[in-house]
Amino acid sequence: MYTMEQAEQLATEFLRRLSADWDHEVALFPDEDCKAQKGEFFYFAFQSAKYIETRDKKYFLYGPCQFAVHSVTGECRLLSIHESFAINPFDGR
């Protein structure tokens, strides 16, 4: 079983691979309220790296941008917008 810290490392690697050919550099939100565990999954939010650095809305990508890491297998998957709202892992951040 993975800890939050280990899941975050898996999430960082997953995001790096996922976004390798995207036009924008993206990163995990470092804020604790953008990380959660519900049931068997850890949830993380990501956004444009420039937005995270500056919080300037002109760099904001579509959102919510979230994905899940299974706490036992470590499998990562991107959540759809509908799933993100239905699961609401960050309690309406």
Short description:
The chain has about 90 residues and is an alpha+beta fold.
Largest sheet: 5 strands, antiparallel
Structural class: alpha+beta
- Taking pLDDT < 50 over at least 5 consecutive residues as the criterion, the unreliable ranges are none
The run of helices and strands is: HEEEHEEH
Describe the protein in words.
- The N and C termini lie far apart (27 Å).
- It is globular and about 40 Å long.
- The protein contains three helices and five strands.
- Strands 1, 2, 3, 4 and 5 form a five-stranded antiparallel sheet that branches.
- The mean pLDDT is 93.
- It has helices at residues 4-18, 49-54, 81-87; strands at 26-28, 35-38, 41-48, 66-70, 76-78.
- 30% of the residues lie in helices and 25% in strands.
- A hairpin with a 2-residue loop joins strand 2 and strand 3 (41-48).
- With 93 residues, it is α+β, with helices and mostly antiparallel strands.
Topology, element by element:
Layout: H1 4-18, E1 26-28, E2 35-38, E3 41-48, H2 49-54, E4 66-70, E5 76-78, H3 81-87
Antiparallel strand pairs: 1-3, 2-3, 3-4, 4-5
Question: Tags for this entry?
Answer:
5 strands, 5-stranded antiparallel beta sheet, 93 residues, 25% strand, single chain, alpha+beta
